[in-house]
Structures are given as structure tokens and as C-alpha cells.
Amino acid sequence: MKKYLSNSGFTLIELLVVVSMMVFLTAAIVVYLKPTQAEARDSKRKADMAIIQSALNLYFESNGEYPSTSEGYESCFEVELGGIEGGVVCSSYGTDPVYWIPGINDFMSPPPRDPGKHANPDHDAYYYMRDVASQTGQPHSYVLFFMLENGEQDNVCDMAAFKFPPEVLASYNWSTRCPD
């Protein structure tokens, strides 16, 4: 009786070539998709700002003013930005997401939070500041600050009117939203 040997397998070289091609394609796809993911997170940040602004407008219609930024609130703290003292800011960073803007949880549930992934994790937050005075003395009733991953500023507010020194805002690339 004759035995037939079957050579129906892959050689080691063939397997290495296929695996190398798969690794190369996977790396190319990851490199290609990374900017797309950052753009998607930036789009979410802009959409979050629209949601927060809608909730702030509802709050204003119900209460006749925008939410307070009292220092005693766990997400609010006093800031000094470029020589401006006494401003109180509320931050979504590291706080319970329901309570980062005082009183707003009745108008949106839960308030959105920054999707993260900034090079500096301190920038993975949204900030709310009420009664920001402009250089003309006319107060803006609030300002929302957020940062885009693409490093650009997307300012809806007229930042030249604020008392914030331009170099402070420029150095952090903050984007802003104010009441319409």
C-alpha cells in the first residue's frame, strides 16, 4: 500500500508575509482614523455647548437670571486669570456630572461632559462663568469655555470685549459660547 504525503499547508515565509501585511494595514487604518476621532470629539463638544446653552436659556426663562456661580458649590472655585481676580468658575472636571452648573440639572439630564482625550487632562472639562463684565462695562450674562483638540479657537463670543487679557485666552486656545 502506498502512502501519499500531503503538502497542503502554508510555509513559515508565507505566514510571515501575510501577518506583516495585516500589521501594516492595521497601522495605516489607525493613523488614518485618529484625526477623524478627534474631529468627532470636537463636533461633540460644539453640540454639547448648544445643549448647555439651551438649558441655560430655559433656566433663564424660569428664574429671570442665569445660574449663580457660588464658591460654596463643589464644582465652583475662584479664579485669577491674567490679573482678573474674584471671578468664580464652575467646572465639569472631576465633579459629579449632574451638578457642575448649579441648578441646571432640572433643565437637562445629565449635563454633558467633555469627551476627553486632550494631551493635558486638565483641559478635559467645560467651564461656566456668570456675569463676566466686558471692557465697556456691559456684562455678558455668562460665558462657556471649552477647548478643541484641533488647537483652534471657535469663539462665538466677542472675546475682544472681555476684560480677560487676550494672551491668556490665546495661550490656552479656549473656545467660547455666550448668550445669543
Task: Note the topology.
Elements: H1 12-63, E1 76-81, E2 84-91, E3 127-133, E4 139-147, H2 166-172, E5 174-177
Could you describe the 3D structure shown?
The protein has 180 residues and is α+β, with helices and mostly antiparallel strands. The chain has one domain. Helices cover 33% and strands 19% of the residues. The chain contains 2 helices and 5 strands, in the order H-E-E-E-E-H-E. It has helices at 12-63, 166-172; strands spanning 76-81, 84-91, 127-133, 139-147, 174-177. It has a 5-stranded antiparallel beta sheet. Strand 1 (76-81) and strand 2 form a beta hairpin. It is elongated. It starts with 11 loop residues before the first helix and ends with a strand. The model has no long low-confidence stretch (mean pLDDT 76).
